[in-house]
Each structure stands twice: as C-alpha cells, then as structure tokens.
Amino acid sequence: MVGLRGVGKTVLLDRMRDDAEATGIQTVRIEAPETRSLPALLAPQLRQALLRLSRNAQAKALAVRALRALAGFASALKVKYEDIEVGLDFEPEPGLADNGDLEHDLQALTEAVGAAAKQAGTALALFVDELQYVEEDQLAALITALHRAAQRRLPVVLVGAGLPQLRGQMGRAKSYAERLFDFPEIGPLSVADARNAIVKPLEEQGVQIDDDALRSIVDQTRGYPYFLQEWGSHAWDTATTSPITGADVESASISAVAALDESFFRVRFDRLTPLEKRYLRAMAELGPGPHRSGDIAEKLRRKVTSLGPTRNQLISKGMVWSPNHGDTAFTVPLFDEFMRRIMPGDDWNE
After folding, report:
1. pTM of this prediction?
2. Which domains does the chain have, with CATH numbers?
3. What's the whole-number average pLDDT of the chain?
4. Sign (positive/negative) of CA torsion 35, 259, 315, 168?
C-alpha cells in the first residue's frame, strides 16, 4: 500500500491506476467523501471487479464465491451503514463475511477477492482518494484486511491519496500501519519543474514567455500544480501576442486570484463554523505558517486548551495539518491571503 499526501495527489492517483490497468491488473477507484461509509463506497466497485474476474474461466468459481461473500457483507452491514446500495448477483454463503462486524467481514471479503484475483493470475488494486475522510474505525478495518491479505500472500493492494494528516490517522487506527505501508509525500513542484509546467505547453503552441513573467507565475503559485494551471490559463487568455510578458501576468493574476476566491478557496471557507473561520483568520494574521498553537491562541485571546477541539475539527475537514507537534499549517498555499481578503480589518476578533 502506498499512502500519497500533498498536492497533485489526485492526478498521480489516476495516472497510477491507468498504468495498472494497462498491465491487466483489476482496479477499483473511489473517492471518499465525508458523508459516505467505506462499505458503501467499496461494495459496488468490488462487485464490478468481481464480475470481470468471473469471466476468467480459471478464476470463475472463486470469483463467484467472492460475489457471494460480497452479498453477505452488504446484507449484514446494511443495517449499520444505511448508505450501502449494491446489486447482489448471487445469494450469500452463510457464515462468509456476514457477521455484521466490519473488521471481521471486510477481512473475509478481502481474502475471498484476493483468492479469485490470484487464481486469475492478476491482482486487485484499490485506489482511494481523500482517504483522510474515512472514519477511524473503518480505516482500522481496512488496514486489518490488507494486513491479512499480505500475510496470506494474496494480491490485494491499496493506493490511497490524502491530505498530510493521513499518516497520523492511519497510525492511530492501527499502530503497525506505518510499518506496513509507505507514505511518500508529494509536495510543491521544484522551481525547475514549475517553470517547465508553464513553458512546455506554451512551446507546443509556438508561444514564448519572458523570464519576468515566468518568474512571477512560479513565485505567486508557490509551485502548487493547480495554481500553476490557473495562472497559466489566465495568462494565456490575457496575452494578445507572443511572448507573454510580465504585464500580461500582472493582469492575469487579478483574474486568477478572483477565480480561486470564488471556487477553490470559497468552497473550503463555506464549510467552516464561525469559530473555525476566526481560528484560520488568526493564523492568517500571523502569515503563511506554520504557526505554534500558543501564538494562534494569543491572537484569539483564548487559552490553547480551549481551542483544541476547533483545531481538531479543522484538521478533520482538511483545512490545516500539523507538520510538527504543536505546529499548525494550512493544507494549501495562499489560503492566508484569502482569509485576509474575505475577513478584512479587525472585526473578526471581536
């Protein structure tokens, strides 16, 4: 299992899945929203993968057994997780993944699926984006199931992508998670890579960009891939001739920031409670960060202990993370500037 965290994770996750499918590996691709349970997300996707495996003559019997396990899994857990909706192609096999206990049943289901994939001479790869939104007990069940599959040498793997707090969440869910999985971090692009991300697409269209303009884009975006796309797009729309100039980028920056404010940043802001907004505004007052919890509390004129639940909730929502003990940082760059724009002045701290 590989746990991806940081910027650019979703693009990389999709590319890895495409590469896996090109080699004949069976894949499942899901995104974990805050409002859905893990069983509800897995069940329909596993059904599709098992139906594909059942067309393999060598693995048909084991794939059908896994489909029976899935039927028992869904039926037993539907009472607990009311959001499970999956077509059942076979009757459940009594005693197979139908105890109603997620950790036990998911382990049994994973073993059945892994046996079918092994018999077919392939593997099953689960690609899960936004893994940090999976609740801790469900995450623990998933880790246990994958650990059991590894012990039995069954070809079931997980490639998960999530925000920086994912490593800590998995460690809390199961203490052995950090030994079992790899957690490469995908950070901002280097200056050279960020420059190439702008220059190469332009060159393919026969368009040049001068050094001042390129430097301005790289500096303003902090190497964040999505922001590079936004600035590149707006610079393209603004410029009327080649090369794109610093003046073009200056104008494009206004529209790029406005676009981010209305979509990328605003979507995050609208999910916050009033106290959470004040907490982030206090962080913004201190700058890009990371910041010590005591410094944030001082800005809010509150005790650190009283702000602990607010900080934890912001971490759960993916707004901030803790790069070191006692430190708090925004999960995306430029959010401090957005907070100062949307909550200007000093009224936010009254």
Report:
1. 0.79
2. 2-186 (3.40.50), 191-266 (1.10.8), 271-349 (1.10.10.10)
3. 91
4. positive
